[in-house]
Amino acid sequence: MQKSPITKYRPHPAIELPNRQWPDRVIDTAPIWCSVDLRDGNQALAIPMSVEEKVEMFNTLVKIGFKEIEVGFPSASDTEFAFLRRLVSDNLIPNDVTIQVLVQCREHLIRRTFESIEGIKNAIVHIYNSTNPLQRKVVFGKDKKEIREIAVAGAQLVKKLTPSLPGTNVRLEYSPESFSDTELEFSLECCEAVSDVWEPTPENKIILNLPATVELFTPNVHADQIEWFCRNLARRDSSTISLHTHNDRGTGVAATELSLMAGADRVEGTLFGNGERTGNLDIVTVALNMYTQGVHPELDFSDLNGIRDMYERTTRMEVHPRWPYSGDLVFTAFSGSHQDAIKKGFAQQPTEDRDLWQVPYLPIDPADMGRSYRAIIRINSQSGKGGVAYIMEKEYGYQLPKEMHKEFGKSVNRVADKTGAEITPEGVYTCFQNEYIDIKEPIELIEFRSERIDERTVEVWVVISHNGTNKNLRGTGNGPIAAFFNALKEIEIEDFELLAYSEHSLGRGADSKAVSYIQLKNTVTSTVCFGAGIDTNISLASIRGVISALNRLMK
């Protein structure tokens, strides 16, 4: 970091806004919500969603209650185009749901976008162009007049093409991209110019989306921007002011809430904040924050666990254990004093559904989201990997590698699903033993000894039972594990790669045992899994861990 005085960065200038009103306002009604999971969220994934995964997410968003859903950038790729046409051909879009499509202010892209929305009852064509000084200079090399003309030309083309889809109610949304870093007067100038083209009315409003594409300052400054814009906009009664906050400073939720107080009507965001860099606004958090204040968000998160499972499956992202409302550990308490207060709060909480919720440390009833409070980690088929790992460490001293948490968690959940009951800590430990330690097929270690030949070479002699037949093997390598792998080649077990190894002591003193965790990959099938081995001898513990992983890969 640069030493003081800091010259590399400078504070954002204050906004001149005499008699600002937003600090005295409250949020007393739900905004218009627009999910951008299928566009902004999807483009931020290392592996974008498949069409089938997008369909699953779209159906979930509809079930939650979103009435406006941005489904993609159909002019950008054949996959995006095909997904939108799939929604049309399979009749998946309810009549009360509006499909939003994003497109740059470029003629051939806008024309392709109109092809994609043919047959849709209600559509928002969302055009945008970058307006901030840095991009005007560095990216486009254009002045303000030229940038404004790009926006105007885009709006003109959308208006011209709209009659070509007589069965579609087309609405226009315009974003001065990087509004957060654009001069307010120029953002207003561009929006007014687009609005002049579209000629909105109170019955047919234009959506003016004011994105904090990069979050650059404290939330109150964004609220000042929004209130200033609402005060100075000529056609305020014919405009829907929309927010699209990112989370670079970690205050996207606060910026959105204060900007709703400042006069915004609409919110774009994603489930659990998935998006570029540090993410988009998390709509789940804003909606449930609203709910805890007695304002219904008009979105249904009563099955939050199921929504999270869908999200993690389709995006391959994970919700952090401490993420508001949805994390594995949000409704747990490890502190004894917290556990006691919560227990007493539940005991005194009235049972009627409409009674005021008053339980210490829990600002929301977990049951309202289909969740439950756990005073200590208890495991059932809905439990997360974090709880399983916590039990193994706190109760039995096993420090499972982070990458192993999910794998073992699934094993425990399978047992819970089978029994239909909660699993005790003892049951978790038994599952670990059965899954990793006591697995002896197709390979069982009978005898093992090793000897260091020189500084670079270890030789091992091994007797194993392989599919019920004893085998005497010998191998050399730069360590016991490498030598053991080479010994296995004698019986044509060789299509495996060591990905990770770790070990630690179980207990203290001369009689303590070592536990090893071995992660292997089958180089033919690309299957990856862990094994675990325990022994008083560290080398033997690692060999047992290798055999455990091999047996699990080959079963």
Précis, in short:
The chain is 38% helix and 20% strand. It is of the alpha/beta class.
What does this 3D model show about the protein?
- The chain is elongated, with a radius of gyration of 29 Å.
- It has three domains: 29-315, TIM Barrel; 331-376, Helix Hairpins, CATH 1.10.287; 443-554, Double Stranded RNA Binding Domain (2-Layer Sandwich), CATH 3.30.160.270.
- β10 (457-466) and β11 form a beta hairpin.
- The mean pLDDT is 92.
- It has helices at residues 37-43, 51-64, 78-89, 107-116, 133-140, 144-161, 184-198, 219-232, 252-261, 283-292, 304-315, 336-348, 385-396, 402-419, 425-437, 480-488, 538-554; strands at residues 32-35, 68-72, 98-104, 122-130, 169-177, 206-212, 239-245, 266-269, 443-454, 457-466, 469-477, 496-506, 513-522, 528-535.
- Helix content is 38%, strand content 20%.
- It starts with 31 loop residues before the first strand and ends with a helix.
- The protein has 555 residues and is an alpha/beta fold.
- It is built from 17 helices and 14 strands.
- The strands form three sheets. It has an eight-stranded parallel barrel with strand order 1-2-3-4-5-6-7-8, surrounded by eight helices. A three-stranded antiparallel β-sheet has the order 9-10-11.
